[in-house]
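Hi all, long-time lurker, first post. I run a small reading group and we've been trying to get comfortable going from sequence to structure in the token notation. Rather than ask abstract questions, I figured I'd post a concrete chain and ask someone more experienced to write out its structure so we can walk through it together at our next meeting. Sequence below, copied exactly:
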Amino acid sequence: AYAVGGCVRDWLFRIRDTVDLDVTVEGNGVEVARAVSRVLQGSLQVHQQFGTATIVLRRAAHGAPRTARAVRMDFATCRKETYAKPAAYPRVTAGTLKDDLFRRDFTINAMAVAVAPRRFGTLIDPFGGGTDLRARTLRVLHRRSFLDDPSRILRGVRLAERFGLRWECETLRACQEAMAAGALGWLNVGRLRKELDRMGREPNPRACLLAFASLLTRD
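-- Answer (accepted) --
Happy to help. Here is the structure in token form:
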């Protein structure tokens, strides 16, 4: 089992109050979630059709410091994704940890930390996310990333503003090409609204909107 994605990024940024944890499992993620829920006595919700599960902890466990916010842990089995067409929902199949990391949006979100006792705390970083994080660089994992999922354009704006990142040159070019192709218009209303709502909850929503506008006007 591995902690993956945003929580790993935040820990490397020395953000310690993360309460949303993503866990991916090379095996059966739902069964691991059931076992964790029994130990931590959290509320468990299984999403059988997606092969995922969520645990919510509303109180401190095992002497951990109490938090005013509930801790949410999302569990999934390692998987890979393919896209039949741009902006479509992906086709999901079982995969390896590397497959699972490769399907993510940016290299800084494509790192994992082992949580199994023998390897606890080991960083797995096959795509150079740690190097990009230290350089404050925002980089996609492959050229078609914004075409596969145009919502990554808005996510990139949020991450860049929140953490003071600069867009890597090829990533910026791919983003602008996707926008010029009308990629954001391929998203359904629900997905677009969700990303805009998230932008509105950022520490500085106005800066995010201005940064997004500048992407539209850059040469």
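A couple of things your group might point at:
The CA atoms of residues 151 and 194 lie 9 Å apart.
The chain has a mean pLDDT of 91.
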